[in-house]
Structure formats: C-alpha cells, structure tokens
Amino acid sequence: MSFLNILDDQFRDPAGCVIKIDGQEIDDLYATLVDVSVVSPRQDSAEATLTFETRRVDNGTWNVQDDDRIRPWAPIDILATFGEREDPVFKGFIRQVKVEFPEQKGSAMVTVTCQDTALLLDRTERNTRWGDDTPKSDREIVQTILSDNNLSALDTPGEGQSDLVVNQNDTDIKFLKKRAQENAYDLFFRDGQLYFGPMRFGQDAQPTITVYAGPGTSCVSFNLDDDGHRPDAVVYEVATDEGSETNEQTVEPDLKVLGDTHVSKISGQQGDFAWRLKREGNSNPNQMRGRAQAKANEESLKITATGELDGTQYGHVLLPGDPVDIDGIGDKYSGTWYVMQVEHRFDANGYLQSFEVARNAYGGGVSVMDNVLAGIL
User: Fold this and answer.
1) Which distant-in-sequence residues (6+ apart) come within 8 Å of 229 by Cβ?
2) Which of 9, 179, 240, 273 would suit a FRET pair with 108, their CA atoms being 20 to 30 Å apart?
3) Domain covering 16-119: architecture
C-alpha cells in the first residue's frame, strides 16, 4: 500500500505515492510521512522534498533520522500510483537531511531534500577550454561530459552552436545549464537520462487537461496571461570585412506553431516588432545567430498560463518538456500547450500537480470528446 492510500479511502483507486530508497519501498515509514513535493522544470534539475514526523523509540534512538536508509547520496525513486499502474515522478539522490527539535516536545521533524541525477554532475569543477585544438559543437561537448560521467542521453543531444571555443570553469551541470540557455534548449533528466536539445514541440501531446468540464474536470484552477508586448523577431549585428562597419541581421522564431494562428499575426498588425540583441564579448557570427534564435524562440511564447490538476481525476503524471492539450478555455486558447514546469504534491489532501505552460499560437483546440479516456484510470 502506498502513502496517501493509507490516509484516504473515500475515492475508488485514488492516486497514491510510492517511495523507494536503494530500490526498496519505505512502507514502514509512511505513517510518519507528512508530505512529498517534487518540482520539475524543463531547464533545470528536479528537486524533491519529503517531510517526516520523527519520534524517539524505546532504545533512545529516533525512528526516522536514525534509520540507515535516510542518508545523503542514497538513491531514491518517487512514483505516483493509479490503481495497479506506477508512473515515475522523480529519480535521483538524497542530497540533505535536516532535523528540527522545537521546544514543544512531540513536534520534531525531519526534512529530506533530494535532487535528480544532475547531482552527479555537480561534484567536480572542470577548468578546461573546449575546442581549443579543434572547435566543437554543443552536441560534442555534451556527449563527452556524459561519457566521462557514465551517463546516457534520453535522445541524441541537440547540435546547438558549432565551431565553439569556450571555457568551462564550473561543474559540468552548471556549465551545461549555461549552454542550454545560450541555445534556448531544454535541459532535464528523465528516469536518469539527460535531455539536452530544442523544445520538444513535435512530441505526441500528453492526455488532455480539462477545464470546466463537469464531472470530467481534471483542472482545479487555470489562470492565463496573453502578453502582447513581447517581440516577434530579434535583431543582431555582425561585423563586415570593412572592420568598423556592421550589418544587421533579423531572426524570427523557428518553433513549430502550436495552433492555427501564430501570435505574430496579431502583434504584427501594428507593424514590425523586433528587439535588439546586445553583443557579448568576442562572440563570432554563428554564436550571435544562435543566441538571437534562442531569444526569438523564447519571446514567441507570449501566451502563458498556470494551473492545478487533481492528480486522481487526471490519472497521469504531467511531464515538463512535452506538449499537452488543454480543453475548455475557449476557442482562442484551447489547444496544444508546452509544459514548462510541474510541481507535484502528495499530502493528506491528495495528489495535486501545479503546472506552468506556454504556447505561441491561437486556436487549434481539441474537444475532450476526442480523448474520452483522458483522466480515467
């Protein structure tokens, strides 16, 4: 039996949470577990927090912090259960254990903070110059770092920028985050494998999120922001053969359009809308173009939203870095969105998933009738 299932049996097959340390379920500690939170972004490492109540036992030890399993660097897996199905939520390591002994006896708490597999790339700082002998691409750098750390990629890493000569004076994961930002790439670990590449707009959409759909509603709340004051293009300058003179180059977003009408069709009615990218250091033309393309893609995601899912009703683990269909918010905004971040929370109130999504287009909505099994266990 999983955590939550022992707290609440008012629903048929409610969503639950299974926690495994060193591959073994800690079912004997579920009675002391207060809540579990996991934050999973698309451009950073995922973190999990487990909060336990701890009690002194007869022999003078404490039942949680003295448990040999509760220790830094212990491998940990967190899964959501839907009936007989278990879906992964988090995979990583315990990073930190904190114990609080307040004045009021009987209120001692243990907080266990965990980080995903990225923690393995945050142990040693490199002082190296990539491409010093032969210029390299971001893909080649990522593949070398993964090989050096005995890790694998979820998909073939993105090519990124080519002809790079770049310094690394940081840990591998901090350096990779900088490279991901330079390319507007996603960077996350899923089931222990690294994804480093363009936003995955071409993936199949996850099960439909339903808003105001009567008994079929899976979304508890939904808040949308359509910000028109973001540019449709990015302008940058490159040096010419004349030396002091420069040429202007304009870059437009090249992401797949998640709908019928791209956002630029609306904002462009008032004329050109482009912002200028400032030159940084000795960036070569390829680096400047890559940086401009990254900026243009990010700015094109003008429509953003936040919401909260009833995990039992939705019946799935929402994943960052993949598209999802959202229905019930009108013809203009219903359709395919991209999941930017998800926070999972398991406690006595059930399983809730708070999410952030974005899109670059209007229309293209899907009816919930097209996916009648969405949210059904």
Assistant:
1) none
2) 9
3) Roll (2.30)
